[in-house]
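Render this sequence as a predicted structure.
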Amino acid sequence: MLKTIEFNDFVIKVGDKFRAKEGSSTPDGCTENCTVRVEYITGSGLIGLYSECLIEGWGDLDGRVKYGHGFFIQEDYLCKYFRPFKTEFTIQKAIKHKGHNLQGMKCKLIKSLRHTQHVFVEVDKNIGAGGADGLGKLGHCILITKDNLSSIPPEKKKSKNQKIFN
């Protein structure tokens, strides 16, 4: 099993998250704004995607995930139908938690709660918070609203002929 694969000067890693591009429905049944995670990369370069949602026509990535939650794709297919899902943010508003001022802290998006504006984020420092039900580090995770976050631009691999997702 590979941990990374490079395609058009873009490195794709196990654990990376992607979202179906807006206005498109992928041929495999993943609808607009569907979020998937790279679960597995085969030796032949196929990418195994995992979705928390059950998707008709999806499989189990050769027994790695529950049936209906996994799908193998090629790199070019990933670039055509999906865009990287940002997980790195900065807390932009003044939020205090147990005496810690969180404004300006970098954080990682752990989970977005459906049908609400709330998200679980994980900060680097132990602030005496929770662990987002085991999704993050104990003491580092807190529930906040999306409007408290500002995006951190991703670092790009330097290349003259770089092609990033359209």
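Summary. Residues 154-166 have pLDDT under 50 and may be disordered. The chain has two domains: 4-84, 88-151.
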